[in-house]
Amino acid sequence: MDQLFFGLPMLDICGRNVLYSPYSVQFLDLPTRFDECVDEQKLYSLGLYNMHSQIAQESVLTLVVSNRCNLACTYCYENAGQPESTGMDKDVAIAALNYIAEKTTGRLRVLLHGGEPTLEMPIVRAVWQHMNEHYSDRDPIIHLITNGVFSQEVAKELLDMKISLTISYDGSTEIQGQQRSLSDGRNSAPIVESNIRFFTGNCAPVQILSIITEETVKKMQDIVRNVAQLGITRLRIEPLISYGRAKHCPLTPPDGEEFADQFLKCMPLAEECGIRLVNSSIMNLVAPQPRYCNCSLGNNMTVGVDGTVLMCHEVNDANEVERMLRTVGSYDKIRRTFNILPEKIQQYESMTCKENNAVCVECFAAPICGGGCPTRNMTVTGVVGTLDDNLCRMRKKILRGVLTKMYLSREVG
Question: How many C-beta atoms lie closer than 10 Å to residue 324's C-beta?
Fold first, then answer.
């Protein structure tokens, strides 16, 4: 029976009781009557709670630099590209960078989100220049999340700045045309595919993000083959979530277990194609977190397009109640800094932590999935702190499959 054993995932793999530590990235075979001869002190002595040395200290600043967009994706969670859409003020972006740099240590990483961030290239340039002029000693990284629709001039500029990219591309020309059309209705695939080839042809760090629906879940292996032909070596596949425009579009989320089955089937194919296959279910597999993610906790901060400090970048299009719940600070224009509200962070944590959820308390996946994304859980269920059952089943099945594969491959190795 899969369960937690002194806070560590324990799985039944081929009739064996196998303990996995995401802290030290170790497996431990437990004896049949493990509860009588293995205790927490024993596990500590074996180093199973020691964080492995590969995890580097890192500070992450997420900037939602624009609500504007040049696509009309049917399922956009931001509902981006509306007439009133705007971009982030450059002063806000620089102030946010200074704020997190002064409050933290270690590597400094900035994520540029949208809308479409390449529509705000003056901000992208300003952030890049400021990081390199003032924080070059922090081993800085800029990662831009883009729809891939931009000119060759912009592509060359991003390449010259050595900005790493995640490009949203749903896996084929046909699917792209159905789900991610240009704002005038034309298929965005020719532009996106051309830009992907440009970056992979120049050995630039680029990842593809593909969104899977009920209609495309059985095409996942075809998607892996298609992106391999574009030269991609890292592919992130995620299920459609029904919020933003997706609430009103004809596409539907895939069944969680069916998604997991198809994802696990794709893993050996991805290895053959030289692709690292990624899903949010396993993003904390070797770097466990107390929460699903830490957008504005610890060394991290997320700033919305209007300068508000958010617990999640995915609430730019949330209703007023949801947005206020996740707003934990604001930009002070006079002082050019940020006012953080610790009581709002504590309130948010208390409502969304996995310890409050009976389903999570004994679940083997809890140390890795952290109870799932609070924003997505609330958006789907309508209740703060309540799990989305479909995503929960998906995460557990993927985690079990990946951990089993890791354990058995260790034996073969």
Answer: 12
Q: Any idea of the CA torsion for 47, 31, 7, 263, to the nearest 10 degrees?
A: 100
Q: Measure Cα distances from 331 to 70, 124, 127 in Å.
A: 28, 19, 17
| Per-residue DSSP letter, 182 | B
Q: Enter the tokens of residue 36.
A: 């009588």
* Residue found by looking up tokens 């070596």 in the block: 233
Direct distance between the N- and C-terminal alpha carbons of the chain, in angstroms, rounded to an integer: 26
Three-state SS at 300: strand
Judge whether 64 and 306 are in contact, CB under 8 Å.
Answer: no
Whether residue 310 contacts residue 341, with contact meaning beta carbons closer than 8 Å, is answered with no
Which H or E run contains 391?
A: helix 389-412
Closest among 176, 161, 279, 180 to 230, alpha carbons compared: 176
CA 388 to chain centre: 17
The Cα 392–Cα 372 span in angstroms is: 7
For tokens 């024993």, name the residue.
42
Paired tokens of 45: 């002595």
Q: What is the pLDDT of residues 337-392, one digit of tens each?
A: 999 988 888 777 766 656 667 778 889 998 888 877 777 777 777 776 778 899 99
Closest Cα partner for 297 from 64, 56, 104, 115? 104
The first and second tokens of residue 394, run together, are 């998906």
Q: How far apart are CA 97 and CA 83, in angstroms?
A: 28
Question: From CA 79, how far away is CA 319, in angstroms rounded?
Answer: 12
pTM: 0.92
- Give SS3 for 261: helix
